[in-house]
Amino acid sequence: MTEVRLLTLNALIRDDVPARLRALGPVLERSGYDIVCLQEVLHRGSARLLRRVTPGYENRAGTGLTLLAGGLLLVSRWPIRRHRFARFPMTRPLRTELLMRKGAQLAVVDTPAGPLAVVNTHLSANRDDDWSEGNRYTAIIRGELDCLARLVTGFEPDLPAVVVGDFNVPRDAPVFTRFAAAAGLRDVLAGDTSTTYRPTPRWPSPPALDQVLLRPAADRPVTARARTVLRDAVRVADGRDLFLSDHYGIEADLSFGTPGPA
């Protein structure tokens, strides 16, 4: 049995970004994560800062000269064989969020268990906090999930895949469960409705918005378990205690068995 450890985290694009990223670096270095998928790392300067504070992650994937496409950054202790960014379709209503060019980052990482497809994504936010079928933002998310399902099924069938990120849709929403079925994905945290977004007075009971989904390959048996992490504040360089993000992270342990006989 070979295990690969992965973290997904929306790193929050605003509020003390350099201080929080400098504090995140040592956390990642000590963690033992093999692959880290980050969302809302929009500026190349933030990516360079993370490179300085995470020297153990020599392999990186992010697209764009000044701004990272989709704000997506993948760092890995293992070689990244290939990667690309696919943008979601532009849809109304017009919103400043469109400037982030949201989409999906698709990579293949050469792990000790063999090549693994890793999809890091960040979907559009639902400003109404209403994921019913007729909601205007649900329609946007439905289109993005349809696009994402096509991207995932485009990977070679003999390649196991893990799909992670900030989906901005609850785990039990019908639009999400239909997507998982269409893409042939298993929701590793199915049935767990505990929040992945830090509660606030305005939003005291947010749903689970960050997800980990798995697609095994026929001859590459793989199981997974996951849990929320990075819930507590950390001490930053100037002595303040800050939360690393407005989201919690999700840690996933992927366990690859021995392939069966041909």
TrEMBL record:
GO terms for molecular function: sphingomyelin phosphodiesterase activity. It holds the Pfam family Exo_endo_phos. InterPro entries: Endo/exonu/phosph_ase_sf, Endo/exonuclease/phosphatase, Sph/SMPD2-like. It comes from the Bacteria. Residues 15-247 form the Endonuclease/exonuclease/phosphatase domain. Coiled coil: none annotated. This is Endonuclease/exonuclease/phosphatase domain-containing protein.
